[in-house]
Amino acid sequence: MSHEITLEQATEKARQAEIILLLLEAFPHRLAEDEAELITGLMSSLVGSAAAWLLEEQSIRDKKA
Q1: What's the pLDDT at 2?
Q2: What's the distance, Cα to Cα, between the start and end of the chain in Å?
Q3: Left (φ > 0), alpha (ψ -120 to 50) or beta: where does 31 sit?
Q4: Could you tell me the CA-to-CA distances from 28 to 6, 9, 43 in Å, in that order?
Q5: What is the full per-residue pLDDT of the chain (65 aa) written as tens digits?
Q6: Considering the entire predicted model, what is its pTM?
Q7: CA angle, corner 12, sides to 37 and 61, nearest 5?
Q8: For residues 4 and 18, what is the distance between their CA atoms, to the nearest angstrom?
Q9: CB–CB of 31/39 below 8 Å?
């Protein structure tokens, strides 16, 4: 099974998620409820894609070992 995204894309998604989390940490309680919901969806998408890539890569490496 081939990856749906590349390593570079997974890396970029993880980096974007990190930046969003750093901004949320720096400015807590500054979002409206609907904005928080949108960011939650965005984070899920970013982190989910990167995690899926990592899980698939680990599975591939385990099969080679």
Answers
A1: 64
A2: 17
A3: beta
A4: 33, 28, 16
A5: 568 899 999 999 999 999 999 999 998 899 898 998 999 999 999 999 999 999 999 999 999 98
A6: 0.80
A7: 110
A8: 21
A9: yes
Residue 29 sits at φ, ψ, to 5 deg, of: 60, 25
Is-contact 13 50, C-beta < 8 A? yes
Q: What angle do the packed helices 7-26 and 33-64 form, to 10 degrees?
A: 140
What percent of the residues of the chain are helix, what percent strand, and what percent coil, each to the nearest 5?
A: 80, 0, 20
Side chain identity at 21, as an amino acid letter? L
- Residue 28 has φ and ψ, to the nearest 5°, of -70, 150
Phi-psi region of 2 (alpha: psi -120 to 50; beta: other; left: phi over 0): beta
Enter the tokens of residue 50: 């990167």
